[in-house]
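Class, discuss our next protein.
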Amino acid sequence: MNHRLASAAPTRADHRAVHRNNLEVVLRHLGTVGPDSRAGIATRVGLTPSTVSRLVAELLDLGLVREVADAPSSDTPRPGRPAIQLELDGRHILALGAEISVDRITVIGTDLAGTVVYHRDRVFDAARSGPEATAAAVGRLCTRAVDTVVRKSPAHVTLAGLAVAVPGLVEVETGVVTEAPNLYWRGFPFGKVLAEVSDLPPEAIVLGNDANFAALAEYRIGSRAGTPNLIYITGEVGIGGGVIAAGQGLLGSHGHGGEIGHMKLDPKGARCGCGRRGCWEALIGLDALLREAGLDDEPTPPQGRRSARTAGAPARATGRGPRQWSASTRAARVAERARAGDKRTLAALETLARWVGIGAANLVNIFDPQVIILGGYFRHVAEWILPTARQVMVEGVLAPDAGGCELAISSLGFEAAARGAALHMIDQVIADPARLAVQAYPKWGVPGPARQRDRARRRVSEPRAASP
């Protein structure tokens, strides 16, 4: 027997797994279709009315759905009581998404429906501060987010968890940052340290690559939402990529897929933050544009590879101090000079556009996406780079007209990764609502009524075998 194939073969799901899947089916239906009746849910998702009624009762106990009266139509009045509709509730659910970038930390909180209830950006030099200080800063910002939401909420608040987007390679299972070149971090147990400074249990914290989370956000809530085959490209000091193929994230065997910023395009080119020469990041990253435009008042990464595990990495700034201007502000300065007709800036943007197109053509030839979305700072300079980049991309793709692939600008800007991280935590709740019944973080929220919580815990953890 081939044991490798045997271990990969599907096995029969037990009743607990079927039950959890059915809860997810109901929640995703309401999230996608909108309000619906119990009978409507049963008809449209293929479950029996009695099963739907039991599932809905559990979701009502957990506060994930609520009943609303179907407003009668003035055109077709109906006798009797109005029909009872169900809709996603989850206003008491708080999903936190945080992004760590070279020059800032972003924290976004949403409810179960994805509505943003908290948003904070803080200028922060993560490279100079080191991973321990960065973890402490993230912990403080997230504590403030929870406190703010709890204070403003008329009801209890349940924290779904915290997902953190990191610009580098991450071991998702262990919460270890394997390599983050632009932060000078390597092999650092960020998830464990963050749990210690925030009083959150490690299982409540998820680490992921920033571009992968951003790609999720684009797929779910961006201007091209629902496009099953797309590639998202981060636009910061670093360049990364998130790939959505057939509606699923393409992460690779170790979760390290999408590091497109380190495609080698010019072996004799500028040195990248990873220490190598000619990476796409060294050609189209924000520092590369600033250097070409004569606005590099913050030097590029030092020569050679760095492996600083803690603080001590050199500041990337002149006498004004480390990264006083955010990536957005610096990109806006480039746009101002371009509008003023500065020749060096316009030449730098033309060079940038050609390299964007060359790299994008490589991606189209490999992945055949429907759209490549440029995020981050590219939004500020889109009007100068898109025409040339599109032309170069089309010229470099084997398929006629680039196979119909579009080159577009993100509608989410610098928020994409944090929004995607929060969406990931929402997905965790929808995929397994029982986590809300068995997890409690006293410092982070106000628990709901004990009777409801105990009742929900019994229902979700002990489904009846006869009614999955």
The chain is about 40% helix and 15% strand. The chain has a mean pLDDT of 84. The two ends are 33 Å apart (CA to CA). Residues 343-367 form the longest helix (25 residues).
